[in-house]
C-alpha cells in the first residue's frame, strides 16, 4: 500500500488508507506492506509538514492493530526520480529549463535518497520472506549524499556543467515557502540525519537487498535525464 498526500485535503489519505486496510482485512489478505516516508523532525501540530505527514503516521500506528497475520512498514527517503521530468517541475521549478535548482536544502544537507526500484525490491523481499520481514519498520535509503554532491554527480555523469543549486535562506526562503510548500519539505528533510552517520548500505545489508547509488540511477535512466535537461 502506498498513498500520495492530498495537499488540499490532508484527511483524504487517511480515509483512503483506512478503507484499503478494511477491505484487505475483509478479503483475507495475509500480509500488508505499507510504504510511508522517512521520519522527519517534529514540528508544531499546525505546521504544514505535520499536517501532511500525520496521515502516514496514523496509518503506521493502525497497521499493527488491524489484525493482519503479517505486516511490514517501508520508509523511503527522497526519491531519485524527483530529478526527472515531470517530478522535477514540482520539486525544483525551472531546473529542467535552466539547470538551476532553487531549494530550501542547505549545501551540506544530507539527502536520504532512494531509487524507486529499491522500494520495489524491498516489497518483493518482504513478500518472499514474510516471517523475516513481519513487524519490521525499515528506512529504505539507497544512498545518503549532500545536495552539492548530487549536483556534482549530475554535472559529471551528464556532462552538463550548467547544473547548479541556489540555496534559499532566511526571509527569502520564508517568502518562497508561502507559495511553494515543497520548499518546506526541503527544509525539514535537510535536517534529517539518515542512519545517524552510518552508511545506509551497511544498515540495509542484513536484508540482502542490493541498493542503487545516485550515479548508478543516472546511468540507468540516462535517456530520461537527457530528455529532461535537453535545454540546459
From TrEMBL:
Any one Pfam family match given in the protein's UniProt record, by short name: NmrA
An annotated GO cellular component: nucleus
Keywords from the UniProt entry = NADP, Oxidoreductase
Carries keyword Ribosomal protein? no
- SUPFAM superfamilies linked: NAD(P)-binding Rossmann-fold domains
Q: Which InterPro entries match?
A: NAD(P)-bd_dom_sf (IPR036291), NmrA-like (IPR008030), NmrA-like_oxidored (IPR051164)
Q: Name one GO molecular function term.
A: oxidoreductase activity
Location of the NmrA-like domain: 9-218
The family annotation for this protein states: Belongs to the NmrA-type oxidoreductase family.
Name of the protein this chain belongs to: NmrA-like domain-containing protein
Amino acid at each position: 500500500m502506498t498513498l500520495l498526500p492530498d495537499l488540499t485535503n490532508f484527511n483524504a489519505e487517511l480515509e483512503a488508507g483506512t478503507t484499503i486496510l478494511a477491505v484487505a482485512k475483509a478479503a483475507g489478505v495475509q500480509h500488508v506492506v505499507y510504504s510511508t516516508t522517512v521520519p522527519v523532525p517534529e514540528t508544531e501540530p499546525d505546521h504544514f509538514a505535520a499536517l501532511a505527514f500525520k496521515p502516514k503516521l496514523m496509518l503506521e500506528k493502525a497497521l499493527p492493530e488491524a489484525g493482519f497475520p503479517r505486516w511490514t512498514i517501508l520508509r523511503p527517503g527522497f526519491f531519485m526520480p524527483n530529478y526527472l521530468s515531470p517530478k522535477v517541475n514540482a520539486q525544483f521549478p525551472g531546473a529542467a529549463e535552466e539547470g538551476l535548482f532553487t531549494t530550501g536544502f542547505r549545501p551540506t544537507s544530507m539527502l536520504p535518497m532512494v531509487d524507486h526500484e529499491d522500494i520495489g525490491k524491498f516489497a518483493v523481499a518482504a513478500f518472499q520472506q514474510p516471517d523475516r520481514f513481519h513487524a519490521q519498520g525499515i528506512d529504505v535509503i539507497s544512498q545518503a549524499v549532500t545536495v552539492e554532491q548530487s549536483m556534482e554527480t549530475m554535472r559529471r555523469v551528464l556532462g552538463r556543467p550548467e547544473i547548479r543549486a541556489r540555496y534559499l535562506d532566511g526571509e527569502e526562503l520564508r517568502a518562497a515557502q508561502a507559495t511553494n510548500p515543497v520548499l518546506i519539505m526541503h527544509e525539514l528533510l535537510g535536517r534529517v540525519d539518515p542512519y545517524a552517520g552510518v552508511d545506509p548500505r551497511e544498515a540495509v545489508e542484513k536484508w540482502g537487498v542490493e541498493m542503487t547509488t545516485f550515479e548508478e540511477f543516472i546511468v540507468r535512466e540516462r535517456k530520461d535525464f537527457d530528455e529532461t535537461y535537453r535545454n540546459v
